[in-house]
Amino acid sequence: MDESRYSGYTLVVMKNLNLFTILYIAVIMSSSLSGYIQENSALAFLAKVDQMPMVGWKVPVVSMGLYIAFLLVLYLQSESNLSLFLKVCLELAISFYISYVIGFSYTGIVLLILADTMRYFPKSRARLLFMVFISIFYLLIDYNLLSAYYGVAPLEAYLGYYQTEISSVLLGLKNVLNSLNMLVFLVYIILLVRMQFSEKERVLALNEQLNATNEELRCANMQLEEYAKESEKAAEARERNRLAREIHDTLGHALTGIITGIEACTTLMDVAPEATKEQLKAIAEVARQGVIDVRRSVKALRPDALEKFNLEKALAQAIQEMKRATNAEISYQCSAKLNCFDEDEENIIYRIVQECITNSIRHGKASKIQIQIGREFEILKICIKDNGIGCSNVHKGFGLHHMEERLDLLGGSLSYHGEDGFAVEAQLPIRWGTEEKKHD
Amino acid sequence: MEPKRDKKVIAMCILCVALLAGMWLIYTDLYQRLPFFQDRTITIGVFSDSYWEVPNGYSYQILEDAIQVFRESHPGVEVEYVSGIMKEDYSEWLAEQLLAGRAPDLFFVLSDDFNDLAEIGALKDLTLLIEKDKGFQKEEFYSSAYEYGQYHGVQYSLPYECAPKLMFVNKSILDREGLEIPDENWDWDQFYEICQKVTRDTDGNGIIDQFGVVGYTWEEAFESNGIKLFDQQGKECYLSDAKAEASLVFVEKLQELNNGYNATARDFDLGNVVFQPMSFSEYRAYKPYPLSIKKYSSFEWGCIPMPSGPKGDNISTLETLRIAMNGDTRHTADAWELMKILTCDERIQSEIFTYSEGVSVLKEVTESDKTLQQLIESSVDSRSLNLEILSGAVENAVVAPRFRNYDEAMAEVDKAVNDILEGKSNIRMEQIIWNRKINKFLE
Asked: For A42, which of B95, B119, B121 is closest by C-beta distance?
């Protein structure tokens, strides 16, 4: 992050600034001492101070040595609160002695400690304690306060060596350095606060995002649950319907064929026993087919004919079987290719044809049935017409109802009328993008 | 932590500790005790002329003899001193040496510098050395002189030589006027009476030309009337004391005798004044000093203690030359031995009467017959000086408080007293007003 890099730079600037300031003051002190000696006013200087000053050359040497030691301590990382506390204490002790050596004329080094310690604050819970501790130290380390206990010569006594203008310039420069140190400290704090602030903001934003996502997720979950319930119900109903359809389609169809066949046999039995035999064989075939259908329905609930053959062949077979079983005349015309439908569509087409033939024979007592399958634009049209008794007032039986339902699911429609026999017309939209498969 | 980082941290800790230790060695000067710096040369700071403002030819004689004694008992230890520093330059020289960290291990301390040097910690506290040294008997010293070596109750120096203040008497005038020389327990009344009697116009020209006293100031009056002017810390002044009032009234009375004429030291030299307070060193200097022989050949003179006030004693202050040890010396033991030879060795101390103008700080030495002999040899008239008077004056001397700015405070009091004496208003009121002012100054 930018702020953390900048605050690192600021700390480096502070360290250098403190080094320079301390060295500056130490050099002033030591050169003023040697000046006093050369000028033969050492006695006057001693009369001004409360404590024997340190020998001139020692001031820069000791203060710089201590400052280097201070930087080393500053560089050490501390991992626990206790070690941080020890580190801070050591730093404060060294900074106190540096300030002591330079006559408590500069105490900005404590700000450096504060700045350095603040780096640990995000990690440390005791930060307030540390801050207060160092700040109190900073407030107390003041010449006027400490000179009562530690007799040190004030910087002014040293500056007294220089002429008034020079000494005021020197003092002014020291104050500038001190202010500069405070300014850099301020910048550092601002950077630190900004760093913490942006961190907080980022966390906050992330949190908000998380909450929103959570909410969405909860909604989606609820929807999903509802949908699952619905879908379960729907699947249940569909399955029930399908089961009913299957029973109706397979068993109903077979049984109708058988009943019609047997009725024919009863009539024929005395007249033409041979034909009856033939008829019975056909009935047996229908019954067997019915059994197979039932078995298969139970197994996969799918017409076996469709399983074995494609739609066209399955239809042809079904019509053929019906023809044989009922003696009705069934004509079948198909002008459309039937090889482009999905399984569910194939199923419904097959079932419609099958159902309608069954209905015509069972209810209409028809002897002629016409089946036409054609395509008009994107709609497949299935027309089944018979010459049976018809029905002026159509009573929707299970079969018709079922067909309607199944067509509805696929977006198709069913229409029928019962005058002049019974006619059924089913329209099934061909699915978008579904092309007739090229003849293979 | 990685091992590499670990090693770095340890190296830094070691470096840090080494730096701190090094700075400590430099700061405390302990580095000078390292074998590399070891040497056994003691230096001593001394000035070339007499402390008592009297030129003599023996400036380093006593010191040389002391060094000789020291060398005999401490072979292998060298003693050095810088010669040729005049007394007037000595304070500055010493301050420069102290500032530069080159100050001698032992040095003589002038009265004016003692308070400052003791205050800023340039002098070594001798308490421990004194306690440890069984051979050191502080009772051998005059208690007043010994006490002068203290600052705020701490022994920072030992006295080397001293000089009490005595009253000079012109015996010739007293003989002429038919008066007896007062005894050593005389008081202000006797003093005033004599002054009153001798103060007159002898040649009849209408101008007073014979006086009672010259140079007797409020200081002498205060000292002999038991006035403690300041507390030991120099924070408070007791100028408003009733005893001070009596002293001021007495000084005023003495001044009024002269009828407005101010007698000077020259009048005393010419033999026209009976009394003049004078340091013992000045008294001794009169004889060997060629000019003064001529100066005083015209009259007979002697010396007695100061007259006592109604609440005080026949006492005055003591001037003391002290020896102190450098607070930063690294030869404490050797320096202490040399210091003792200079101050407590009777052979060396008795040389003070031979080569200097002061008084030995050892009772035994000052009161010995040998001293009397020496004084007579150095042509002090035995009739004019009683050794008991001298010894008593030293022993009973007033020990003035020692604090920083003592001299400035005394100057303030001087200003106050002059103002009070010149003003015609109520002395008591003025005292209180000035006392307040001086207290403010002391703060």
From this structure: B95
**B22 HSE (CA, 13 A, CB side):** 16
Nearest neighbour of B16 by CB, restricted to A33, A50, A69: A69
Q: Dihedral sign, CA of B276, B282, B288, B292?
A: negative
Instruction: Using the Cα atoms of residue B65, residue B71, residue B74 and residue B78 in order, give the sign of their dihedral.
Output: positive
**Per the structure block, which two tokens stand in for B155?**
């022994």
Task: Give the integer Cα–Cα distance in Å for B106 and B115.
Answer: 17
Cα distance between residue A106 and residue A28, in whole Å:
13
- For chain B, say whether A377 makes contact (Cβ under 8 Å): no
Check A69 against B101: CB less than 8 A apart: no
Residue entry with tokens 């039986």: A397
Q: Which range has highest mean pLDDT (A30-44, B262-276, B393-407)? A: A30-44
Sign of CA dihedral B241, B242, B244, B249: positive
β-pairing verdict for A329-334 and A368-376: parallel
Model pLDDT for residues A224-271, shown as the tens digit of each residue: 999 888 887 887 788 788 778 777 877 788 888 888 888 888 888 888
What class has domain A328-440?
Answer: alpha beta
**CA atoms B384, B387, B388, B394: torsion sign:** positive
For the segment B377-382, the average pLDDT, to the nearest whole number, is 56
Among A98, A76, A95, residue whose Cα is nearest residue A87: A76
Those residues whose C-beta lies under 8 Å from the C-beta of residue A321, and which sit 6 or more positions away, are: A257, A285, A286, A289
Could you give the dihedral angle defined by the CA atoms of residues A67, A69, A72 and A77, in that order, rounded to the nearest 10 degrees?
-110
Distance of alpha carbon A248 from alpha carbon A265, whole angstroms: 24
C-alpha count within 13 angstroms, C-beta hemisphere, residue B387: 18
- Return the CATH superfamily for domain B39-162+318-395: Periplasmic binding protein-like II (3.40.190.10)
Q: Which two tokens stand for residue A147?
A: 């000179």
Boundaries of CATH 3.40.190.10 in chain B?
Answer: 39-162+318-395
Domain extent listing, chain A: 2-209, 328-440
C-alpha to C-alpha distance for B61 and B111, rounded to whole angstroms: 22
Phi and psi at B79, nearest 5°, equal -125, 130
Q: Locate tokens 């009344």: which residue?
A: B189
Residue A307 forms contact with B (CB below 8 Å): no
Which one of B12, B14, B17, B20 makes the best mutation probe of the A interface by having the most chain A beta carbons within 10 Å? B20
Q: Does pTM top 0.80 for this prediction?
A: no
User: Residues B182, B189: contact at Cβ < 8 Å?
Assistant: no
Distances (CA, A) of B253 to A76, A261, B185, B229, B250: 80, 176, 21, 21, 5
